[in-house]
Input
Amino acid sequence: MSVLLLLLAASVSSQALAQAAECGKKRGRSASALDEMTWKKLNDVYEDVGEELYDLAFEKLVKMNKRIYDDYEKAVVTQALAQVEWARENYDSALTYFETAVEIDALPDLAHFSLMYQIAQLYYMKERYDEALNRLALWMCKVPPEKITAESYILKASIYAQKKDWRNVVEAADTAISMSDDPKEGWYQLKLASHFELEQFPMAARTLETIIQNWPDRKDYWVQLSQIYFKLKRYDEALSIMALAYRRNMLDKQMDITYLSNLYSNNNVPYKAADVLQKGIEDGIVEPDTKHWTMTADAWFSAEEMEKALYAYAQAGKYSDDGEIDLRRAYILVDMERWDAAAAAVNAALEKGGFNERKTGDAYVIQGMSEFNLGNYDRARTAWNQATNYPRAKKSAQQWLNHMREERARKS
Output
């Protein structure tokens, strides 16, 4: 090991020993009496503070401090200087005075320990996180155990969060929560964020379950819990939590509605997938565009709700610049032998165009079938002749042309 490393190790070791020695010292000081003159001057200063005359109060305290030699009185005045500087938002100066007041070591326990805690808070505010942790640890080991609060562990967790030490954040937050009869929402949020950072998704799910039990009106928690369940492949629970949020009228964003619809589809509940999405469109939450109407139509189709599927495809077609959706609607109408509607759909598809050669040929075949079944033989012939120009549709079109000739010959 190099000399430098040895010196560094020795320095760290000596600091740890000094901290341990300081921690081991117990304290038992009670309040002393101020002399009458000092008390009157301090009372005058506190009146200035009450009127927010901080500059004047500070000036008076500095003068007092120069003329005091008693340790207790000096610690009291130094503490007052720190508080005035805090009020003036001169945090560096406040920190110096707080440190000095603690070093004098003459204040009663309650005030002394309170200053130690404020020093830890100030280091945290100044983003000096290692010093904040050291001061907080010293405070925790010096005060009586019953004086250590849940809030102090949350301060500890917050400092660790700034250091991105997520495991220690969880440990400190868990301690705070276990100590309190009324844990705050923010404490759980700190714990939850740490679980996410550590990719501890089962623990994040359990934390969110607790959060929702206590604060059920925040939609974000429901959505987060569902997404974690989905990530953990707990698909039924992912759907259940979002469905419950939906019934509570909490889902007010497009991404919420489409996510729920997709969950229903993934869980083989296409009817609900379509119903939720269509209602979202009609309520103005989901954008009424080709994509969303097509998703709705596909779900209705999977649910074998053909009338609803046709309606949704028709809506999708209105927003589409090409004929893809109208052609899909035409296929369904042909299967249902609704020839008038099929002819109208395929005509709209061909008028818009925009699909590939294969689908164009198929569209002409379908157009011919629709016109043939409506008794419009000339239109049927024209359509099938057009279809013969497309290699993949040519054979089918010729078969239909032959069938029409045979049919007309049979009837003549």
User: Anything to note?
Assistant: Residues 15-148 form a domain with the Serine Threonine Protein Phosphatase 5, Tetratricopeptide repeat fold (CATH 1.25.40.10). DSSP finds 22 helices and no strands in the chain.
